[in-house]
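Q&A log
Question type: sequence-to-structure
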Amino acid sequence: MEKLYKRFIGFIILPVIAAAFPFLVFANTGDAAPFDWYFKPAQDNAQPQVIPEADFLDEYDTVYLGSPDTPAIYLTFDAGYDSGYHERILDTLKEKNVKAAFFVDGNFVKSNPELVKRMDAEGHLVCNHSLKHPDMTKLLSFAEYEKQIKGWEELISGIGLTPRKLFRFPGGRFSKQTLEYNKQLGLTTVFWSFAYYDWDNDSQPTHETALNKIYSRVHNGAVLLLHSTSKTNCEILPQVIDGLREKGYIFESLENFKR
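Response status: OK
Response body:
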Protein backbone atom coordinates (compact mmCIF):
# COMPACT_ATOMS: atom_id res chain seq x y z
CA MET A 1 0.00 0.00 0.00
CA GLU A 2 2.81 2.43 0.88
CA LYS A 3 4.52 1.81 -2.48
CA LEU A 4 1.28 2.43 -4.34
CA TYR A 5 0.81 5.68 -2.42
CA LYS A 6 4.30 6.89 -3.32
CA ARG A 7 3.73 6.04 -6.97
CA PHE A 8 0.47 7.97 -6.91
CA ILE A 9 2.28 11.01 -5.49
CA GLY A 10 5.15 10.72 -7.95
CA PHE A 11 3.20 10.09 -11.12
CA ILE A 12 -0.04 11.95 -10.51
CA ILE A 13 0.30 14.72 -7.93
CA LEU A 14 3.76 16.12 -8.82
CA PRO A 15 3.07 16.52 -12.55
CA VAL A 16 -0.19 18.31 -11.71
CA ILE A 17 1.66 20.69 -9.38
CA ALA A 18 4.38 21.28 -11.97
CA ALA A 19 1.82 22.08 -14.64
CA ALA A 20 -0.20 24.41 -12.45
CA PHE A 21 2.67 26.10 -10.64
CA PRO A 22 5.83 25.75 -12.76
CA PHE A 23 7.61 28.49 -10.79
CA LEU A 24 7.59 26.25 -7.70
CA VAL A 25 9.43 23.48 -9.51
CA PHE A 26 11.70 25.30 -11.92
CA ALA A 27 12.34 28.57 -10.10
CA ASN A 28 16.01 27.82 -9.47
CA THR A 29 16.92 25.97 -12.65
CA GLY A 30 17.99 26.87 -16.16
CA ASP A 31 18.08 30.55 -17.02
CA ALA A 32 16.35 31.38 -13.72
CA ALA A 33 19.13 29.83 -11.60
CA PRO A 34 20.44 32.52 -9.22
CA PHE A 35 24.04 33.69 -8.92
CA ASP A 36 25.51 35.80 -6.12
CA TRP A 37 28.02 38.30 -7.46
CA TYR A 38 31.55 38.00 -6.10
CA PHE A 39 35.17 38.62 -7.03
CA LYS A 40 38.50 37.10 -6.06
CA PRO A 41 40.94 39.85 -4.98
CA ALA A 42 44.35 39.76 -6.63
CA GLN A 43 47.77 40.73 -5.37
CA ASP A 44 49.74 43.89 -6.20
CA ASN A 45 46.67 45.88 -7.26
CA ALA A 46 45.99 43.61 -10.23
CA GLN A 47 42.46 43.19 -11.52
CA PRO A 48 40.43 40.53 -9.70
CA GLN A 49 38.71 37.51 -11.19
CA VAL A 50 34.94 37.94 -11.16
CA ILE A 51 32.37 35.12 -10.85
CA PRO A 52 33.86 32.88 -13.57
CA GLU A 53 30.93 30.44 -13.62
CA ALA A 54 28.61 33.14 -15.04
CA ASP A 55 30.16 32.81 -18.49
CA PHE A 56 27.16 34.48 -20.14
CA LEU A 57 27.80 37.92 -18.59
CA ASP A 58 29.30 39.53 -21.64
CA GLU A 59 26.34 38.52 -23.78
CA TYR A 60 24.57 41.41 -22.04
CA ASP A 61 25.22 45.09 -21.41
CA THR A 62 27.06 44.81 -18.11
CA VAL A 63 29.58 46.96 -16.25
CA TYR A 64 31.90 45.52 -13.62
CA LEU A 65 35.53 45.93 -14.66
CA GLY A 66 37.07 48.69 -16.74
CA SER A 67 40.15 48.76 -18.92
CA PRO A 68 43.28 47.21 -17.34
CA ASP A 69 45.37 49.78 -19.21
CA THR A 70 43.84 52.91 -17.67
CA PRO A 71 44.09 53.94 -13.99
CA ALA A 72 40.40 54.87 -13.91
CA ILE A 73 38.21 54.35 -10.86
CA TYR A 74 34.42 54.43 -10.99
CA LEU A 75 32.99 55.33 -7.58
CA THR A 76 29.52 53.99 -6.80
CA PHE A 77 27.35 54.00 -3.68
CA ASP A 78 24.37 51.85 -2.66
CA ALA A 79 21.66 52.97 -0.25
CA GLY A 80 18.14 52.06 0.76
CA TYR A 81 17.85 54.75 3.43
CA ASP A 82 19.66 57.79 4.78
CA SER A 83 21.53 57.21 8.03
CA GLY A 84 22.67 60.83 8.20
CA TYR A 85 25.84 60.68 6.11
CA HIS A 86 24.74 61.60 2.60
CA GLU A 87 24.99 65.35 3.01
CA ARG A 88 28.57 65.06 4.24
CA ILE A 89 29.45 62.57 1.49
CA LEU A 90 28.05 64.94 -1.12
CA ASP A 91 29.99 67.83 0.45
CA THR A 92 33.20 65.79 0.15
CA LEU A 93 32.53 64.82 -3.46
CA LYS A 94 31.84 68.44 -4.34
CA GLU A 95 35.01 69.64 -2.60
CA LYS A 96 37.14 66.97 -4.29
CA ASN A 97 35.42 67.35 -7.68
CA VAL A 98 34.51 63.66 -7.95
CA LYS A 99 31.40 62.41 -9.73
CA ALA A 100 29.82 59.23 -8.37
CA ALA A 101 26.87 56.98 -9.10
CA PHE A 102 24.26 56.49 -6.37
CA PHE A 103 22.14 53.34 -6.63
CA VAL A 104 19.11 54.07 -4.48
CA ASP A 105 15.88 52.14 -4.10
CA GLY A 106 12.32 53.39 -4.04
CA ASN A 107 12.25 53.82 -0.29
CA PHE A 108 15.23 56.16 -0.47
CA VAL A 109 13.67 58.23 -3.25
CA LYS A 110 10.34 58.57 -1.42
CA SER A 111 11.98 59.42 1.91
CA ASN A 112 14.73 61.73 0.63
CA PRO A 113 13.61 63.52 -2.55
CA GLU A 114 15.72 66.61 -1.82
CA LEU A 115 18.86 64.52 -1.36
CA VAL A 116 18.17 62.75 -4.64
CA LYS A 117 17.68 66.06 -6.42
CA ARG A 118 20.92 67.37 -4.94
CA MET A 119 22.79 64.30 -6.21
CA ASP A 120 21.51 64.95 -9.70
CA ALA A 121 22.08 68.72 -9.57
CA GLU A 122 25.73 68.22 -8.58
CA GLY A 123 26.45 65.95 -11.53
CA HIS A 124 26.15 62.54 -9.93
CA LEU A 125 24.23 59.66 -11.50
CA VAL A 126 21.06 58.64 -9.66
CA CYS A 127 20.56 55.01 -10.62
CA ASN A 128 17.95 52.29 -10.29
CA HIS A 129 18.27 49.88 -7.37
CA SER A 130 14.67 48.61 -7.72
CA LEU A 131 11.45 49.85 -6.19
CA LYS A 132 11.40 47.69 -3.04
CA HIS A 133 14.83 46.00 -2.93
CA PRO A 134 13.63 42.41 -3.47
CA ASP A 135 15.56 39.36 -4.60
CA MET A 136 15.01 40.02 -8.31
CA THR A 137 15.68 36.39 -9.25
CA LYS A 138 12.42 35.41 -7.54
CA LEU A 139 10.38 37.63 -9.86
CA LEU A 140 9.94 35.07 -12.59
CA SER A 141 7.39 36.77 -14.81
CA PHE A 142 8.44 39.76 -16.88
CA ALA A 143 5.41 41.74 -15.71
CA GLU A 144 6.34 41.24 -12.05
CA TYR A 145 9.96 42.14 -12.75
CA GLU A 146 9.04 45.22 -14.77
CA LYS A 147 7.02 46.64 -11.87
CA GLN A 148 10.19 46.94 -9.80
CA ILE A 149 11.98 48.81 -12.57
CA LYS A 150 9.16 51.01 -13.81
CA GLY A 151 7.94 51.76 -10.29
CA TRP A 152 11.35 53.23 -9.44
CA GLU A 153 11.39 55.21 -12.69
CA GLU A 154 7.98 56.67 -11.89
CA LEU A 155 9.22 57.87 -8.51
CA ILE A 156 12.21 59.57 -10.14
CA SER A 157 10.02 61.19 -12.77
CA GLY A 158 7.70 62.32 -9.99
CA ILE A 159 10.41 64.50 -8.45
CA GLY A 160 11.24 66.07 -11.79
CA LEU A 161 14.26 63.98 -12.83
CA THR A 162 14.86 61.82 -15.88
CA PRO A 163 15.35 58.15 -14.92
CA ARG A 164 18.71 56.73 -15.93
CA LYS A 165 19.00 53.29 -17.46
CA LEU A 166 21.64 52.04 -15.05
CA PHE A 167 20.58 49.23 -12.70
CA ARG A 168 22.22 47.33 -9.84
CA PHE A 169 20.71 44.17 -8.41
CA PRO A 170 19.83 44.30 -4.70
CA GLY A 171 22.40 42.20 -2.88
CA GLY A 172 24.12 41.42 -6.18
CA ARG A 173 21.85 38.43 -6.81
CA PHE A 174 21.04 37.87 -10.48
CA SER A 175 20.33 35.21 -13.10
CA LYS A 176 20.59 34.92 -16.84
CA GLN A 177 16.84 35.50 -16.97
CA THR A 178 17.09 38.77 -15.02
CA LEU A 179 19.84 39.97 -17.37
CA GLU A 180 17.55 39.13 -20.27
CA TYR A 181 14.76 41.14 -18.64
CA ASN A 182 17.16 44.07 -18.18
CA LYS A 183 18.02 43.85 -21.87
CA GLN A 184 14.34 44.02 -22.77
CA LEU A 185 13.97 47.07 -20.53
CA GLY A 186 16.98 48.82 -22.07
CA LEU A 187 19.02 48.69 -18.85
CA THR A 188 22.76 48.53 -18.34
CA THR A 189 23.52 46.26 -15.40
CA VAL A 190 26.22 47.57 -13.06
CA PHE A 191 28.09 45.16 -10.79
CA TRP A 192 31.46 45.92 -9.12
CA SER A 193 35.06 44.76 -8.75
CA PHE A 194 35.58 45.99 -5.18
CA ALA A 195 33.38 45.90 -2.09
CA TYR A 196 33.93 45.14 1.56
CA TYR A 197 32.00 44.61 4.78
CA ASP A 198 30.74 48.17 5.32
CA TRP A 199 26.95 47.86 5.41
CA ASP A 200 26.36 46.78 9.02
CA ASN A 201 25.83 49.96 11.03
CA ASP A 202 26.32 48.04 14.28
CA SER A 203 29.68 46.62 13.21
CA GLN A 204 31.54 49.28 11.28
CA PRO A 205 35.14 48.62 10.23
CA THR A 206 37.86 50.80 11.73
CA HIS A 207 39.38 53.49 9.56
CA GLU A 208 42.62 51.52 9.35
CA THR A 209 40.87 48.31 8.28
CA ALA A 210 38.81 50.10 5.64
CA LEU A 211 41.75 52.04 4.19
CA ASN A 212 43.92 48.92 4.05
CA LYS A 213 41.19 47.00 2.20
CA ILE A 214 40.67 49.76 -0.33
CA TYR A 215 44.32 50.59 -0.98
CA SER A 216 45.42 46.96 -1.24
CA ARG A 217 42.63 45.87 -3.59
CA VAL A 218 42.14 48.88 -5.83
CA HIS A 219 43.13 48.36 -9.48
CA ASN A 220 42.89 49.87 -12.94
CA GLY A 221 39.28 49.97 -14.10
CA ALA A 222 37.92 49.41 -10.60
CA VAL A 223 34.19 49.77 -10.04
CA LEU A 224 34.13 50.57 -6.32
CA LEU A 225 30.99 49.74 -4.36
CA LEU A 226 30.69 51.58 -1.06
CA HIS A 227 27.57 51.90 1.07
CA SER A 228 26.71 55.52 1.73
CA THR A 229 24.93 54.49 4.93
CA SER A 230 28.35 53.69 6.45
CA LYS A 231 29.82 55.99 9.10
CA THR A 232 33.31 54.76 8.31
CA ASN A 233 32.95 55.42 4.60
CA CYS A 234 31.70 58.91 5.28
CA GLU A 235 34.63 59.70 7.56
CA ILE A 236 37.42 58.23 5.41
CA LEU A 237 36.13 59.39 2.00
CA PRO A 238 38.34 62.53 1.80
CA GLN A 239 41.41 60.46 2.66
CA VAL A 240 40.43 57.72 0.19
CA ILE A 241 40.07 60.18 -2.67
CA ASP A 242 43.33 61.98 -1.90
CA GLY A 243 45.21 58.73 -1.30
CA LEU A 244 44.10 57.11 -4.54
CA ARG A 245 44.93 60.21 -6.52
CA GLU A 246 48.40 60.20 -4.99
CA LYS A 247 48.76 56.64 -6.27
CA GLY A 248 47.98 57.84 -9.79
CA TYR A 249 44.32 56.86 -10.07
CA ILE A 250 41.74 59.05 -11.81
CA PHE A 251 38.08 59.20 -10.77
CA GLU A 252 35.72 58.85 -13.71
CA SER A 253 31.94 58.88 -14.03
CA LEU A 254 30.20 55.69 -15.15
CA GLU A 255 29.08 57.76 -18.13
CA ASN A 256 32.70 57.52 -19.31
CA PHE A 257 33.14 53.83 -18.57
CA LYS A 258 35.68 52.07 -20.80
CA ARG A 259 36.41 48.36 -20.98
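Response note: The first strand starts at residue 35 and ends at 36.
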